[in-house]
Design goal:
Layout lengths: L8 E5 L3 E8 L13 E7 L1 H12 L2 E5 L1 E2 L3 H12 L8 E2 L7 E7 L5 E6 L19 E7 L4 H16 L8 E6 L16 E4 L1 H6 L5 H8 L8 E5 L5 E5 L4 E4 L13 H14 L3 H17 L7 H8 L14
Parallel strand pairs: 1-4, 1-9, 2-7, 5-6, 9-10, 10-11, 11-12
Antiparallel strand pairs: 2-3, 7-8, 12-13, 13-14
Helix pairs in contact: 1-6, 1-8, 6-7, 7-8
């Protein structure tokens, strides 16, 4: 995997959308008329959020995916550009609206309820991946969408590229499998060096704990790879093909303010930790620490500053000793 000595660009492939967020004191009952405490627009989509966070953490990042035209799309893309995320190769789809998530955040429970509309936007085709110069990247991260066949074809292109390169110049591939959908996405587990399996997906395929998911799926991971299973407030577990289980507790933010995007924050933190060479345990720990902190703030600003404070203690002592 990439380390501090080898830093090209991270390519993050997946969704950008618009989040329209209403914060309420408690989630409304059906047919209830309720006022919000606050209302805001925010860029959304796993891949777009992860790009934004990785840039804060110190990586040179490019977002790659389908985008729409119009005010909402420009707003979302501009948040990435302003953070320094490259959007040079995005595919503009005229006549589509930006996919939009309508989010209700409850202060009472810390939950976020999402209703999503695609806006007619197609999923990304592998044909567009051919326009990229893979020499520019040392890490490619895929958000699993409903275009499984196309993702396999994009992975084939990365594999073909890697076969022409010595070990130190190969691209590291990571994949996030999040949504509980039965469309063959479990076949992607064997295709990456780093695989993230969400709690929802693990439960969907029959695993009731991160330990069960890790032990049940690790044999599918290719040699030298690792499997990571974040489990919300239960923390996260991980394992490489050395079969040594990494178990990291969640970080309590104190007061839960905004859990929207906590999973994206975890993934970005782990990827950055692995790129910086802290090892699997250190990277998972950084991901948990950063995600916990994110739950105590609104949005994503300030994660870079927090990162610089927690990196020195990524693999030292119990979390409570450090006040995180």
């Amino acid at each position: 995997m990439a380390s501090k000595q080898r830093q090209k660009r991270v390519l993050v492939v997946g969704l950008i959308c618009l989040d329209i967020i209403n914060t309420v004191d408690k989630y409304p009952s059906e047919d209830e008329d309720k006022r919000t405490l606050s209302h805001r627009w925010q860029r959304g989509g796993n891949a777009a959020n992860q790009s934004y966070i990785l840039s804060q953490l110190g990586s040179d990042v490019e977002f790659f995916g389908n985008v729409a035209t119009g005010e909402g799309a420009e707003f979302a893309l501009n948040t990435l550009r302003q953070q320094g995320v490259a959007c040079d190769h995005v595919i503009v789809n005229k006549g589509c609206r930006i996919p939009t998530s309508y989010v209700t955040c409850s202060l009472e429970t810390g939950s976020r309820t999402i209703v999503h509309n695609r806006g007619g936007m197609p999923e990304l085709s592998a044909e567009y991946f051919k326009c990229l110069c893979l020499d520019e990247y040392d890490w490619v991260h895929f958000e699993t969408r409903r275009n499984i066949k196309d993702i396999h074809e994009m992975l084939d292109m990365v594999d073909a590229y890697n076969k022409t390169k010595p070990s130190a110049e190969k691209i590291t591939v990571s994949i996030e499998i999040e949504k509980p959908i039965n469309d063959g996405r479990d076949g992607l587990i064997r295709r990456a060096d780093v695989i993230f399996i969400s709690k929802d997906y693990a439960r969907f395929i029959g695993y009731n704990s991160p330990t069960d998911a890790i032990n049940g799926l690790i044999s599918r991971v290719r040699p030298g790879g690792c499997l990571i299973s974040p489990w919300g407030d239960a923390g996260a577990q991980a394992m490489g093909t050395d079969r040594v289980l990494v178990d990291v507790k969640a970080t309590n933010p104190g007061i839960v303010v905004d859990t929207l995007g906590a999973g994206d924050t975890f993934v970005a933190g782990v990827v950055q930790g692995l790129r910086d060479g802290v090892g699997l345990r250190g990277a998972v720990r950084l991901g948990c620490m950063l995600a916990g902190y994110k739950c105590g703030i609104e949005g994503y600003n300030g994660l870079g500053d927090r990162w610089r404070k927690i990196v020195p203690v990524a693999d030292v002592g119990p979390l409570q000793e450090w006040g995180y």
